[in-house]
Each structure stands twice: as C-alpha cells, then as structure tokens.
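quick one: magnesium ion bound model?
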Amino acid sequence: MEDERRRLKKRVRLYRTAAGSFVEEDGRHFRVSEMPWDALLAREDLPEFLSGLIASSSPSPEFQIAGVLAPIERQEVWAAGVTYFRSRGARMEEAKDAGGGDFYDRVYSAERPELFFKSTASRTVGTGGKVRIRADAHWSVPEPELTLLVSPGGRITGYTIGNDMSSRDIEGENPLYLPQAKVYNGSCALGPGILVATSPLPHSTEIMLEIHRHGRIEFSGSVALTELKRDPKTLVEYLLRDNSFPHGCYLMTGTGIVPPNSFTLASGDRVRITIEPIGTLENEVA
Ligand code: DO4
Ligand code: MG
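yep, here:
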C-alpha cells in the first residue's frame, strides 16, 4: 500500500506512438499492451492501472520519441475561455469596435465559465506536426494552455499541453464568430504525452511560450497557474453537466499569455510551449 502510494507520486507519462502506447517512469518506458487508446483513456483508474503495469512489467527498448503521435483518438477537445485576467483584457480590446467587449468582462466574473467545443482528432496535431493559420484570417496567435484529461466519470486523470490556435481578427469582428476563429483544420495541437497524475499541479507551475522566427525568438512569455482564475475541477463539473464523453475528453483551461497586438503568426514560425513536468510541445506553422 505504501509502495503503491509512493509510486503514484512519481512522474508517470503516457505516450501514444506509431508503435503503440508506452508509459514512462524515471526515463524507463513500458509497453501498454492489448489496450486500445480509447479504452485506456476511458479508464477511471488510469493512474492506478498504469502504476500497477509499471510494477509488474519490464522496460521496453522499443519506445522512440520520434514516433510520438497526438494523444487523441475519439476524445473531443473542449476549451475554457477568459480564465486569466490577461485574456479578458485582450479580448475586450479586440472586440470593442464590435460592441462585444463587455461580454468578456462579464464572463470573467460570472459563476458559469465560458466553455466551447475546440477540436477532434482530425484537426489536431501532435508535437512535431504542423499547426495552421486560417486562409481567411490576418491576425493569428497560438494560445498555450494547460489541458486536462478527463475520464467519462469526470475524474481528472492527467495533464497535457495544448495550443488553442486562434484567429483574433475573426473572433474580434463578432463574438458569434468564435467557432470559426477556433475550429478549423490544424487549429489544435496536443502533447507531447500525458502526465498521468491524481493530484493537481502546484500553483507555481509555469506555462512558457516561445515563438521562433528565422532562428530567433520573436516573442516569449510565461504565466504561472496562480493566475488561473477558475478551479480545474469546477471547469470539469460544468463541462460534464448534461454532456457525456464515453471516451473521455480533453479540456483546455484558457490562455494567460497573449502576444502584443502588433504580432501575428507567420508560416515557418516555430511555437514551443513548455510546462514542466509535462514536457515541451513544439509545432511549426504550415
Ligand atoms: O472567448 C474567447 C476565447 C477565449 C480563449 O480561448 C482563452 O481565453 O484562452
Ligand atoms: Mg484559448
């Protein structure tokens, strides 16, 4: 029992790869055999299950970091918005000419959070994949977000990194255009793997963003989870109200890093998002 508790406190990361699923602990990788990805992610006891698997198996040399895929199959990706003061301010500014600024202030302080549908596997890339700018947008940004893995029963069983690619000009023109600003081919990145954990990440955890252009850093920023206004458990509770996710789902928790208004992403940019202890999600803009 004590051994089990100590093991659950360790850093355990789950990867979906071209050669199947692997779980990592202390730099050692173990194959997760005979369990399809969707069945694995739907487990209410995912942390305990993987911990038991590590205790009873031998490391496998077959894991290859280059083979890591987006950690998603039939899971839907949802997102929370205006959960950081910085996001509230940026949105009020971008929507002021459309008369929509007030909505963002109101949702920031309301009891009910903003939750929206973000992506499916077909629109999502993993680390190393290419994210996209909409062809009809001219002001686009990445949104680096701590992303929760949620079981069908509403338990937070893991954490990954998400990039909620957004077209700010479309969103700012009219808040009702939000789905077009947020959901399009290549609009979402997740990964590299899932930190499987039963306890919340420390409030001091930092989300770091770097945007590289022509080999130089064009923009960088960071934010700590202390700035996140909403409790992840409450976000999950709202998401699951009258809404079922038989394969589990992902919930992005919002962005607290917004580049200046003069910045827009360009083709060839590299977006690097790091959240220790999850890892780094890196994508080129197509
Ligand atoms: O309300 C618009 C989207 C907000 C969002 O994506 C964020 O705050 O991260
Ligand atoms: Mg966002």
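The pocket of magnesium ion (ligand 2) is lined by residues 79, 81, 143, 145, 164, 254-255 (CB under 6 Å).
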